[in-house]
Specification:
The complex is a heterodimer of chains A (about 400) and B (about 260). By secondary structure, chain A is an alpha+beta fold. Chain A contains 13 helices and 8 strands. Chain A starts with a helix and ends in a 5-residue tail after the last helix. Chain B is globular. The chains are: A alpha+beta (about 400), B alpha/beta (about 260). Chains A and B meet through helix 7, helix 10 and helix 11 of A and helix 2, strand 6, helix 3, helix 4 and helix 5 of B. Chain A: Belongs to the binding-protein-dependent transport system permease family. HisMQ subfamily.
Chain lengths: ~400, ~260
């Protein structure tokens, strides 16, 4: 056979080995196998579950949501009574989960930035304190954190020996008692003033940026904004004769009456979530800032930009690319890990719905699905929002 | 003598424009990195309009010396006076000096999150309180001068190394500095891009800018420098006019260095 014959491609007659060794064929072949396996497994699980439920005479469906739950919940931020429906219990659980997650995420993000920047400080003591914090906190399981703070809080004094501050804040082994604000006549005007202040401050910022671009003159937009948001409502508040009173907690009998109470479990959970998750935020911030090369800072300095402007205009915009993805998972983890509340009896969604409601109603599949739906919705929302932000700050390479 | 260069070795020298005014004064400057004595008693005086090329083996302290002039490095002893302002711990002085001294880096250090135009207008807008339109107009003039106005809307990552370095030069010029420092501006470039950057630097020299250039481009030194400084082990070993420096080096260390870089 001559060399010329060999070089002619034979498209019509491919041998078996040629087909088997073709990378496109292999890729399609494996995809078909995986798809068949997934569909078969899903079908098996669904029919099997349905048969078993039928065999035990268990009903499925969401009708139970409108029937009375009949149990009480230790603490909730939205109104709830034992006569309310299971659906109402679902909402109470969601609200309790969201309120603790909300505060935890805000505190975690702020503290994380502080600790992350501290760890990079050239001040030895500051950097070591931050490092020690990170190493201690992240090497202890979160559940242990929660149990530790909950146990520790039981060592707080009894209500009669409460730790008090200004005769208005009291901390004891039942929880934290704070004054509850009672709005009087015209307080809604103060709230409206806050909103107007925010709107005007936003307008001033836009205007100041435009003016700087047009004339080069700078305007103290930040402090003007602070003045507007704080000043306007304060002015209205005093002009209206201070229409806000407080309901102070007071010791009556064995515990405090009046005011607002935050249960011990909430405090312990929030504390543990914040202490633990701050570490990951701090590490994300540290990694982000380190990812910006020192040359960037030097170039900025050499152009005469001050350190504060360099951080704001050059370093942080670039660092955020690296900070946002881990920040997304951290925020989602805060929400998901708040479900460990069940260990210390904080009535979060998992505790009131997947535990009590499930045991009582027996609608395991529906309830688990609803709880999963909630966590997925929250996680996907956080992820979508931050991914959108991340897209805005991405750097163009080509 | 054949000089390794990207510029034609035609013996042409850019006309000098040196005035009597001293703009940079280094007096007994010393610096240590830990135990390592990186600058030993450096004395240097630079006149307005003077163009100085600094060469020497790696680790000889040449980059460190020019980085002390705008305090990217801190000197530990001695005085540095730039445009009559003393460089020290006074923040106002540091800011004032940095506004007047431009710097071009080996690694370009353009801001990757900003377009070429935004790279050029950032400092004028924030440091000089310049209106955006005016800053952009000036930036476009300098981008034209470095011959890449058509790239203004692109991001640094989309440009070649030579183009990036020319943007970096334009970015510095937008602050209208009176002194320009170049820290090995062509060392990170592919050979075919070196000449486009050197051309821009020659043009800058023709305009009368005071320049301190750390480089091994001896052709550039021959064409542009009023003075060549040779540094070794943290000391200024020899300084002379380029003609004298290349044809009649005095110290053995200079001779050795020149034989090494001109050998191939």
């Amino acid at each position: 056979m001559s060399a010329v014959d060999k070089a002619v491609p034979r498209r019509d007659a491919r041998s078996i080995s040629e087909i088997v060794n073709d990378e496109r064929f292999r890729s399609i072949f494996y995809q078909i196998i995986v798809a068949v396996a997934v569909i078969w497994t899903a079908q098996y699980l669904i029919t099997n579950t349905a048969e078993n439920l039928q065999a035990r005479g268990m009903s499925t469906g969401f009708e139970f949501l409108s029937s009375t739950a009949g149990f009480s919940i230790a603490w909730s931020i939205i109104d709830y009574e034992a006569g309310d429906t299971y659906f109402h219990v679902y909402l109470v659980g969601i609200a309790n989960t969201l309120i603790v997650s909300f505060f935890a995420i805000i505190a975690t993000t702020l503290l994380g930035f502080v600790v992350g920047v501290m760890r990079l400080s050239s001040n030895f003591v500051v950097a070591q304190i931050a490092s020690a914090y990170v190493e201690v906190m992240r090497n202890v399981p979160l559940l242990l954190h929660i149990l530790f703070w909950f146990t520790l809080s039981s060592a707080l004094p009894s209500p009669k020996q409460s730790l008090g501050w200004l005769d208005s804040f009291f901390l004891n082994n039942r929880g934290l008692y704070v004054p509850a604000p009672v709005p009087g006549d015209g307080f809604d005007i103060v709230i409206i003033m806050v909103l107007i202040g925010i709107a005007v401050a936003y307008g001033v910022t836009v205007w100041a940026t435009k003016r700087q671009m047009a004339t080069g003159q700078r305007f103290p937009a930040f402090w003007t904004g602070v003045g507007l948001v704080v000043g306007l409502p304060l002015l209205a508040f005093f002009a209206l004769g201070a229409p806000l009173t407080f309901d102070y907690p007071a010791l009556k009998g064995f515990n405090f009456q009046g005011g607002a109470d935050v249960p011990r479990a909430f405090c312990a959970l929030l504390f543990a979530l914040v202490l633990y998750h701050t570490v990951f935020m701090a590490e994300a911030v540290r990694a982000g800032i380190l990812s910006v090369s020192h040359g960037q800072t030097e170039a900025s300095y050499s152009l005469g930009l001050k350190p504060s402007w360099t951080l704001r205009l050059v370093v942080i915009p670039q660092a955020m690319r690296a900070v946002v993805p881990p920040m997304i998972s951290n925020w989602m983890n805060v929400v998901k890990n708040s479900s460990l509340a069940i260990a210390i009896g904080y009535p979060d969604l998992v505790a009131v719905f997947m535990q009590t409601s499930l045991n009582q109603s027996g609608h395991a599949i529906e309830i688990v699905a609803m709880v999963m739906l909630f966590y997925m919705t929250v996680s996907l929302t956080i992820s979508a929002a931050l991914n959108y932000y991340n897209k805005l700050v991405q750097i163009k390479e080509r | 003598m054949s000089l390794d260069t990207q510029l034609p070795d035609d013996g042409v020298h850019v006309a000098s424009a040196i005035s009597d005014e001293v703009v940079i004064e280094l007096a007994s400057v010393n610096k240590w990195f830990g135990e390592f004595h990186v600058l030993k008693d450096i004395n240097l005086s630079v006149n307005k309009g003077e163009r100085i090329v600094i060469c020497g083996p790696s680790g000889s302290g040449k980059s460190t010396m020019i980085r002390c002039i705008n305090r990217l490095e801190e000197h530990q002893a001695g005085d540095i006076i730039v445009n009559g302002t003393e460089m020290g711990t006074n923040i106002k002085n540091i800011d004032a000096i940095r506004r007047n001294v431009g710097m071009v880096f080996q690694q370009f250090n353009l801001f990757p999150h900003l377009t070429v135009l935004e790279n050029c207008t950032l400092a004028p807008i924030w440091v000089k309180n310049m209106p955006k339109a005016e800053a952009e107009k000036i930036a476009m003039q300098y981008l034209e001068r470095v011959k890449i106005p058509e790239q203004a809307a692109k991001y640094p990552g989309q440009l070649s190394g030579g183009q990036q370095q020319r943007v970096a030069i334009a970015r510095s010029l937008c602050m209208s500095p009176t002194i320009m420092l170049f820290d090995e501006p062509t060392s990170a470039l592919d050979p075919e891009m070196i000449s486009e950057v050197l051309d821009v630097m020659v043009g800058l020299a023709e305009s009368g800018m005071t320049m301190l250039v750390v480089t091994h481009e001896m052709g550039f030194a021959k064409r542009v420098a009023d003075r060549v400084i040779f540094m070794d082990q943290g000391e200024i070993v020899e300084q002379n006019t380029p003609d004298e420096f290349f044809t009649n080096p005095k110290s053995d260390r200079t001779k050795l260095f020149l034989s090494q870089i001109l050998a191939h």
